Amino acid sequence: MLTVTSLTKRFGSQPVLLNVSLELGSGQVLAVLGRSGGGKTTLLKILAGLEAPDDGQLYLLGQDLRPLPPNERQVVYLYQEPLLFPHLSVFENVAFGLRIRRVPEPEVQAQVTAMLAELDLLDHARKAPHQLSGGQRQRVAFGRALIIRPRLLLLDEPFGNLDAQTRADMQQLFLHVSRQHQISSIFVTHDSREALTVGSRFAYLEAGQLTSFAARADFVQDPRTGITSELAFWRSVEAQR
């Protein structure tokens, strides 16, 4: 579905992405793990059309993305901050993409109501964003993204501002929703447990260089991910109890 080949990006003399290549199949979630400053956000911004690459190829369903402006790519980019419209209700935030596409009102009502029910937000439909919790606002952002059926969903550490329990709940919700709608996604995070939870495929991005893994076990065993040492630490803690 998505093919990225030899993607390169520099800011001045500073290389940010170096010959990055990846493939993503329909309905897959590619979890990209990496530390801050490794190029994860730049990769997503290039895919979304918010940054231009210096070199490389980007194809989505066989279509060259490079000449397309962001609004024609059918790609949605979700940030850590939900960025909802403060003057619109939950219902109208989710309905926004349908309305600008001039979807008939009965269809808007039906689709948005169904989406809010799926996200457990029906009781909050008439509330303003400031009346919601952080997790609820992120659910609204998901609903607004998914209602337009994007070809590709990009997630930039979307749960980083949430408390541990809400973050875990949102990870499970994301898994449910992405499977239900068969949305292809790239999910970047610096949390190895989150990567393992949400990903169906895995990659590691460090200093602009991307390593893709053929299997979950290869991802876990690579020392750069830190997963093996973290597991060993928790085993030692349990042994001392």
TrEMBL record:
GO CC terms: membrane
Domain ABC transporter: 2-232
Annotated keywords: ATP-binding, Cell membrane, Ion transport, Iron, Iron transport, Membrane, Nucleotide-binding, Transport
The protein, known as: ABC transporter ATP-binding protein
GO MF terms held by the record: ABC-type ferric iron transporter activity; ATP binding; ATP hydrolysis activity
Organism name: Hymenobacter persicinus
PANTHER family linked to this entry: SPERMIDINE/PUTRESCINE IMPORT ATP-BINDING PROTEIN POTA, SPERMIDINE_PUTRESCINE IMPORT ATP-BINDING PROTEIN POTA
InterPro entries: AAA+_ATPase, ABC_SmlMolc_Importer, ABC_transporter-like_ATP-bd, ABC_transporter-like_CS, ABC_transpr_FbpC, P-loop_NTPase
Pfam families hit by this protein: ABC_tran
PROSITE patterns the record matches: ABC_TRANSPORTER_1 (PS00211), ABC_TRANSPORTER_2 (PS50893)
Superkingdom: Bacteria
SMART domains listed in its UniProt record: AAA
